[in-house]
């Protein structure tokens, strides 16, 4: 079985979060920092060989003071991130151990990646080379102009809101990142780079609980989610609480 290096981009600026005193990944949800919650479900997995967390240069002092011991205990390598998310991931790709043949990228701002969801993504990445979780869009979609007036209704068939972790064969993701200078559109996830070099990416069923903290409202939602999700089972062998949810998601995006 191949081994996954897991990259956690945590070097963002939290602009949309709107708290100049503390970035979103350092806020706590039910007493645990968002970044710790994002990392812990990947710790102690037999299929994970390396954990790499990328933080912004201005956060090293705070991180060392408050979280150095956590990172050491979890076996996390801490590196410096870049100006854009894809720069951060590229910097981490340079640090992947030679023993890893796959890589997963999971936003440090997503505190609830369930074990079952990670299993699905990793299995599909081994089979297809590239995999990511997604939720079929269930609201009606409108495109509007800057004046707020609707221009059109966008058919939602075949549209997914995608999440992380996104997982890839290592050589494929490296090639995809090398091709970045040839793209003109804004790049918002790693799968987009892989799509651009012509490799199909497989969507598996995401989870509505696997939210990304973007605004303060998301943090309030995360607090609510932490109250309804099951607690970790003792002796489960991982720090991850949500191993029983897999059945609820099904095996693919359509189930
Ligand atoms: N240069 C960057 C930009 C983003 N990220 C990370 O990528 C994830 C998703 O990005 P996003 O939610 O946009 O976070 P921020 O960039 O911090 O938010 P904002 O765009 O509001 O400033 C986050 O874990 C963030 O820390 C990163 O590692 N390096
Ligand atoms: C990678 C991602 O979380 C997938 O939904 C998302 O694209 C990140 O976007 P952001 O604009 O950097 O928050």
TrEMBL record:
Group of enzyme by EC: transferase
Keywords annotated in UniProt: Isoprene biosynthesis, Nucleotidyltransferase, Transferase
Domain of life: Bacteria
Pathway(s) this gene product operates in, as recorded in its UniProt entry: Isoprenoid biosynthesis; isopentenyl diphosphate biosynthesis via DXP pathway; isopentenyl diphosphate from 1-deoxy-D-xylulose 5-phosphate: step 2/6
Listed CDD domains: CDP-ME_synthetase
Region: Disordered, residue numbers: 230-255
Annotated site, Transition state stabilizer, chain positions: 16, 24
Alphabetical list of Gene3D superfamilies matching this protein: Spore Coat Polysaccharide Biosynthesis Protein SpsA, Chain A
A Pfam cross-reference name: IspD
GO biological process: isopentenyl diphosphate biosynthetic process, methylerythritol 4-phosphate pathway
EC number(s) from the headed UniProt entry: 2.7.7.60
Database matches in InterPro entries: IspD, IspD/TarI, IspD/TarI_cytidylyltransf_bact, Nucleotide-diphossugar_trans
Record carries keyword Transferase: yes
GO terms of molecular function: 2-C-methyl-D-erythritol 4-phosphate cytidylyltransferase activity
Catalytic activity: 2-C-methyl-D-erythritol 4-phosphate + CTP + H(+) = 4-CDP-2-C-methyl-D-erythritol + diphosphate
Function per UniProt: Catalyzes the formation of 4-diphosphocytidyl-2-C-methyl-D-erythritol from CTP and 2-C-methyl-D-erythritol 4-phosphate (MEP).
Family in the record: Belongs to the IspD/TarI cytidylyltransferase family. IspD subfamily.
UniProt-recorded name of the protein: 2-C-methyl-D-erythritol 4-phosphate cytidylyltransferase
Source organism: Tautonia plasticadhaerens
Lineage: Bacteria, Pseudomonadati, Planctomycetota, Planctomycetia, Isosphaerales
């Amino acid at each position: 079985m191949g081994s996954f290096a897991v990259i956690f981009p945590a070097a963002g600026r939290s602009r949309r979060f709107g708290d100049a005193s503390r970035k979103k990944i350092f806020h706590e949800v039910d007493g645990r920092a968002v970044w710790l919650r994002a990392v812990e479900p990947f710790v102690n997995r037999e299929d994970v060989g390396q954990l790499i967390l990328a933080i912004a240069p201005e956060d090293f002092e705070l991180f060392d003071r408050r979280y150095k011991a956590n990172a050491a205990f979890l076996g996390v390598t801490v590196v410096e991130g870049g100006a854009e998310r894809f720069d951060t991931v590229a910097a981490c790709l340079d640090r992947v151990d030679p023993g890893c043949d796959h890589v997963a990228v999971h936003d440090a701002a997503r505190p609830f990646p369930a074990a079952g969801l990670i299993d699905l993504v990793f299995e599909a990445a081994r089979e297809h080379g590239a995999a990511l979780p997604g939720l079929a869009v269930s609201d009606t979609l409108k495109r509007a102009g800057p004046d707020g007036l609707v221009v059109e209704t966008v058919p939602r068939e075949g549209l997914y809101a995608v999440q992380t972790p996104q997982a890839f064969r290592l050589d494929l993701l490296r090639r995809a990142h090398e091709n970045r200078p040839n793209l003109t559109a804004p790049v918002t996830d790693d799968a987009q780079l892989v799509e651009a070099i012509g490799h199909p990416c497989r969507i598996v069923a995401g989870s509505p609980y696997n939210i990304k903290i973007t605004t303060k409202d998301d943090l309030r939602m995360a607090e609510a989610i932490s109250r309804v999700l099951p607690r970790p089972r003792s002796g489960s062998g991982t720090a991850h609480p949500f191993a029983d949810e897999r059945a609820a998601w099904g095996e693919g995006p359509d189930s």
